[in-house]
Write a structure and sequence with these properties.
Helices cover 62% and strands 14% of the residues. The chain is α+β, with helices and mostly antiparallel strands. It folds into two domains: 106 residues, Peroxidase, domain 1 (Orthogonal Bundle); 72 residues, no CATH class. Strands 2-1-3-4 form a four-stranded mixed beta sheet. The longest helix has 20 residues. It is elongated.
Length: 185
């Protein structure tokens, strides 16, 4: 659960993206969550950068200069760079992971996107993923963003969780239902 501070920053970025004040292209709208996640991963994997951005003894100007160089190399959207500058200015870089996760959740809610956690026994082909996304979109009436995981115990088929609703089309689920029917009848 993100902190109140993280939610405040995430909400401000979502408001900036979806409000009337900033003109953001659809490509930029899709890129910003990915860029925030990538920057947070970079901080997590690079101890020197993590120390640089989290040490109060290093000036904000120095941190911004490093961010400017990284933004150029990573080809960050201007809004992503500006947002990271605000996070640096308020010394909240240690919350970037929480902020990015809360941002993605709030943006999905605002854009009417439902996240479907898909579990399969084997990796799906791209055509199968598209078919699954289409079926879930038709079922839920919302755009769907798929997150995949593998579970060989399913034997075959797929389970999908969208919010609190679970769609179980797995062989294991069918066997469990058959067993329950046999036990009750």
């Amino acid at each position: 659960m993100p902190s109140t501070v993280s939610l405040r920053y995430a909400r401000a970025l979502v408001d900036a993206l979806t409000g009337q004040r900033v003109d953001v292209s659809p490509a930029a709208l899709a890129a910003i969550p990915v860029q925030l996640d990538a920057f947070e991963t970079l901080l997590h994997e690079n101890a020197e950068l993590r120390i640089l951005f989290s040490t109060p003894a290093i000036s904000t100007a120095k941190k911004r200069a490093v961010l400017a160089e990284l933004a150029t190399r990573l080809e960050l959207e201007p809004l992503t760079k500006n947002f990271l500058n605000v996070v640096i200015q308020h010394d909240r870089m240690n919350l970037l992971g929480e902020i990015a996760a809360a941002f993605r959740t709030l943006l999905d809610e605002r854009m009417g996107v439902a996240v479907a956690d898909i579990t399969t026994a084997r990796a799906l082909e791209e055509a199968e993923k598209q078919e699954l996304a289409g079926a879930l979109a038709a079922r839920t009436g919302r755009q769907i963003r798929l997150k995949f995981s593998l579970d060989p115990d399913l034997i075959g088929g797929v389970t999908a969780r969208v919010g609190s609703t679970i769609y179980d089309g797995s062989v294991r689920g069918q066997l469990d239902r058959l067993r329950a029917d046999l036990m009750s009848g």
